[in-house]
Amino acid sequence: MKEKRFDYVVVGGGPAGAFFALEMVRFHPDKSILLIERGKRVENRNCPAAVTGKCVKCKPFCQIMNGFSGAGAFSDGKLSLYNEEDDDFYVGGNLHKYAGVDNTKRLIDYTDKVYLEFGATEKLEGIDHPGEISLIRKTAETAGLDLINIPIRHLGTDKAHVLYQKIEKYLEAHGVEFLFETEVQDLLIKDNTVYGVIYHSNGGETKTVEAGAVVLAIGRVGANWLLNLCNEHDILTASGVIDVGIRYELKDSVMAQINELLYEGKFIAKPAPYNDKVRTFCQNPSGFVTTEVYDGGITLVNGHALKDTKSTNTNLALLVSLNLKDMPNPMEYSRNIARNMNALAGGNVIVQRLGDIRIGKRTWPEELAKNSVVPTLKAASAGDLSLAMPYRELMDILGFIEMMEKVAPGFADPDNLLYGPELKFYSNKVELSTSLETSVSGLYAIGDGCGLTRGLMMASASGVYLARMIR
Ligand SMILES: Cc1cc2nc3c(=O)[nH]c(=O)nc-3n(C[C@H](O)[C@H](O)[C@H](O)COP(=O)(O)OP(=O)(O)OC[C@H]3O[C@@H](n4cnc5c(N)ncnc54)[C@H](O)[C@@H]3O)c2cc1C
To answer: Going by DSSP bridges, is the β-strand pair 78-80/152-154 parallel, antiparallel, or unpaired?
Structure first.
């Protein structure tokens, strides 16, 4: 019997793939859609570390990163909006370079409404108290830092899970077909036109399915696979910026003002001597440091905040952006840092006190046990980040921390903790047309995995945009 042919096969059920499907079923209900996701349904996703306190490196795929709603399911659910007066986008990625700035603002308005419809909180963070925020900005400027303040809608990890489950059920009720625990392994391409995919179900056989168009929405977790696919099929790419850094954990009390007024302060600086761009990212007041596992067993750090369960620490990423133009595959640079750091920690992530880094010594477990900032990620191994973090990036981060001390006294306290590695795998930029089509006809790419976006809101909006643009 001949297999059914679909109008669209979507690879990856993260926010980008889900919002593509959502927009399609609403405005083109006649189109048939198959969404293939290598992880589980959102309601069946559970990270064992929540119970065991330790990452067990789930097989075949990390539960945090894979499954319906992608990295969004266990993410903190901070939906970054924009400022009407800005004529550029400073967070979230590059969708505006394809869709235009004004159109991207309208896309975000629309996507935000859809999130509200599915149960997102009405409350926006960072819009009250403009006078006090402007004082923080002035202090930051005196210290050589810029403060980017955009409104944020904070779902909270636990609430995000529920919201995405409603979207999953809605899509199914409206005719989207799903294949869960099924991994797309290759594309069917003839005469530079895609006509389907080859997939493999967990414990099952390898099959093919044909489609009028294929949408790659594979997230950062699929970025390495996509890079190999691009090499194999001559899909045009350009190398993008890499972000290398650490997750920083400190007491809520140090961040109290920023947490209260902004929820997430986005600070940027170019510390001497390298003048690389360093920024804060993904701030989680009263949050928890977590791990995420990538292909090849690479374990990275991340962080989240729950709506109902709170710690007494704030965590945030400190990321250094580097443009390694001469390197054909900058992602390998990041992966090597991660491999070394994981190897030093017996396959785990490392945590070190700031004070110990400053005096050139490792942190010992018994010192960590007495530290005034109590680590929320119990599984991290006390050790020495400087053995694996390149000197340049470490200097950038330490310089940035000293600058931030002027904005939030206590930011450079010796007891504050650095966890590593925190890296972002979006440096493989796929060349896309304004309708997000790759150099292969009928093959489209959206979300974080192709280097287009860097966060929940813009990834979701990229799905909406493609649904409106696709032929
Ligand atoms: C712990 C954590 C906290 C975060 N907090 C925030 C936050 O507060 N705010 C914010 O804006 N962003 C946050 N992020 C980032 C955010 O989750 C991502 O930017 C967003 O999920 C990207 O969406 P996406 O659809 O492009 O990719 P993803 O969400 O990564 O989804 C990609 C999906 O594709 C699937 N896939 C990959 N390859 C294949 C294949 N070959 N076959 C089948 N399926 C495949 C994966 O299983 C995955 O489910 C966080 C991320 C993490 C990990």
So the answer is: antiparallel
